[in-house]
Amino acid sequence: MNDFHYGGQAVLEGVMIRGQKSVAVAVRDPAGRIVTHNELLDSPIYKSRWSRMPLLRGLIMLWDTLSLGYRALMFSANVALQGEGKGEEAKFTGGMMWGSLVISLVFVVGVFFLFPLFLIGLVDRYITSPLLSNLIEGLIRLGLFLLYLVTISFLPDIRRVFAYHGAEHKTVNAYEAGVALEPARVKMFSTAHMRCGTSFLLLVLVAFVFITTLLGRPPIWARFLSRILLVPLVVSLAYEWLKFGASHYGNPLVRLLAAPGLALQRLSTREPTDDMVEVAIIALRDVLKADGATS
């Protein structure tokens, strides 16, 4: 089995899997057929020494994941709306994609990192302890994230995406266990996975709580600036921990620290159907074939 850590994300009625040499998206169209799209990962950044440097590689991988994921999502949307063969129109780059990604990032930073500080600023004069002020800010941030997950989990379309998320996890878990990629066998595995993006986001928010509690209580403008500047640092640290944890999951302490993130995945995954697992298997097999790995 290949030592590369495969992973991906759920999209509309499908799954994206990223391999060493390519990325594959498999989507079931309205007629029930599975439409696939494959792209080679031939950008110079993948072979650059920067992509292997600790801390910096986390930022590079995050941007890569966001850009690939956004394109996969657009592909799946086109397949769902237009049927087989039309999804290729979703392969776009340029200003539209990058602009959408930047807007999405600004929204995430604004809502989950700056808005909690804004709320604290309204009542900060009544909080005597700087430590308590920063701690409450962090708890608001975590609360907003949990509220977001719980709220969207009630939407029928999102519940199906979460089920495909579970199919992706089951398929990767089965491959890493050396089990044949057959729907009946893949379905036996867990919908939780150590390298899940949900766990990653929880790590980022928890790390923010710990780091910001050490920063004291400077003027509010300085606190806003510090939150913005901390985002890339905390993202990098969270990526390094996730990478370390995935390689040392057999360690009891690592398993204990990873438990909250795995438990949180119960909100962002659902038990998939056989046909959802079939889609995830096809996506993984495509990248395994490109990598020359066995399935």
Overview of this protein structure:
Strands 1-2-3-4 form a four-stranded antiparallel beta sheet. The N and C termini lie close together (8 Å). It has one domain (7-291). The protein has helices at residues 56-82, 95-123, 130-152, 156-176, 183-186, 197-212, 220-247, 252-268, 274-291; strands at residues 7-11, 14-18, 22-28, 34-40. α2 (95-123) crosses α3, α3 packs antiparallel against α6 and α4 (156-176) packs across α9 (274-291). A hairpin with a 5-residue loop joins β3 (22-28) and β4. Mean pLDDT is 86; it is low at 84-94. The protein has 295 residues and is α+β, with helices and mostly antiparallel strands. It contains nine helices and four strands, in the order ββββααααααααα. Helices cover 62% and strands 8% of the residues.
How are the SSEs placed, and which strands pair?
Elements: E1 7-11, E2 14-18, E3 22-28, E4 34-40, H1 56-82, H2 95-123, H3 130-152, H4 156-176, H5 183-186, H6 197-212, H7 220-247, H8 252-268, H9 274-291
Antiparallel strand pairs: 1-2, 2-3, 3-4
Helix pairs in contact: 1-7, 2-3, 2-7, 3-6, 4-9, 6-7, 6-8
Q: What is the global morphology?
A: globular
Order of SSEs: EEEEHHHHHHHHH
Contiguous low-pLDDT stretches (5 residues minimum) are: 84-94
Number of strands: 4
| Portion in helices | 55-70%
Q: Into which percentage range does the β-strand content fall?
A: 5-15%
Q: What's the assembly state of these chains? A: single chain
Separation of termini?
8 Å
* Count of individual domains: 1
Q: Tell me about the biggest sheet?
A: 4 strands, antiparallel
| Average pLDDT figure | 86
Supply Rg: 20 Å
Helix segment tally: 9
SS class: alpha+beta
Q: What's the arrangement of strands in the largest beta sheet?
A: 1-2-3-4
